[in-house]
Amino acid sequence: MYYQEVIKAIITLLILAALSIETMIRIILIDHHDSFTYNLAALFTKRDHVQLEVIPYEQANIEKIAEYDKIIFSPGPGLPSEYPLMHQVLSIYGSHKPILGVCLGHQSIGEYYGARITNLNDVHHGRRKELHILKRDDVMYRGISSPTSVGVYHSWIVDDYNFPSCLNITALSEDGIIMSISHKEYDVRSVQFHPESFLSTEGERMINNWIEG
Question: Has domain 2-212 been given CATH number 3.40.50.880?
Fold first, then answer.
């Protein structure tokens, strides 16, 4: 009788382990050599069912990205045009994999789908801004208050002039700057602000929302 109970317990553990493996979410974070990348990564590693890999931009293999469930474009210096891999990823995977862009990644996504990026007159570095959510049904904003505080570190923005019809503007700052966008058909979205910043009071919850999809 004792051995039967032990065998049952082992079988139960094996089933639970198998279920855990099946539900593991594999995410690739393409790092554009930004100081915030590992702060962003830390938000994902808190989740037991998430397997996150941070890959430097130069080492990212376009074919191997197919092995991951979700894709993140990190923040980074410079302009999207300096990192053409992001557009290649959108071209190949944008229609069938969830993709999230942060700051530089946000600008790259906007530009790929036809938006214009514009240089601001002054650098918005380490500023707290009010985020006003326009699309309450966007997956990232489930249960998020509006307005909420977010941290921004940028000098370029996605412009709303001649904004492409395939994209939604999902949130704005108090001064009217686009803070997030999403594709109307694909599971592609991006944020201008840094959810990993201590200035973003609900950033971790936004990331959790995106993970759970």
Answer: yes
